[in-house]
Amino acid sequence: MKVKFNLEAARRAERAERIEKAKAAKVKALATRVLNNADRNTIAKGIFQIVSEMLYSSNLARNVTGMLMDLSSTELYTVLDSRDSLKAKVGTVIVRKKCIRKKN
Questions:
Q1: In Å, what is the CA distance from 52 to each residue of 2, 3, 49, 61?
Q2: Separation of alpha carbons 37 and 49, rounded Å
Q3: Measured between alpha carbons, how far is 28 from 81 in angstroms, rounded to an integer?
Q4: Could you give the CA distance from residue 90 to residue 67 in angstroms, rounded to a whole number?
């Protein structure tokens, strides 16, 4: 029984990972094209979904997503290249946001 449970848990984790990779791939594919407003909105929605899973607050996720969308297309493509680079950039944006808040 315990082996079956572990196998099911492993399958669920594997499925979740595949879904996460598919989401990231879709967002990255959109970012590689020349971005018009509709594309930017779609990318922003995808980034928001990923960022909101990382952060506690949807308000903070919205702010971070907005700051990430201010990046150039090239920088945005680089950030979306891997989940680790996105996490690093989210951390950088949060630190920058805190510094701006302290100045004001």
A1: 33, 33, 5, 5
A2: 18
A3: 7
A4: 9
Check if the beta carbon of residue 43 is closer than 8 Å to that of residue 76.
Answer: yes
Side-chain half-sphere CA neighbours of 44 within 13 A: 17
> What local confidence, expressed as pLDDT, does residue 1 receive?
45
Please report the pLDDT score of residue 31 as a whole number. Answer: 62
pLDDT along the chain (104 residues), means of 10: 65 83 74 66 86 85 89 79 85 79 63
Long-range contacts of 71-77 (CB under 8 A, 24+ apart): 73/31, 73/34, 73/35, 76/31, 76/43, 77/28, 77/31, 77/32
Q: Does this model's pTM top 0.70? A: no
Rg of the Cα trace of the chain?
16
Give the residue extent of every domain in the chain: 2-103
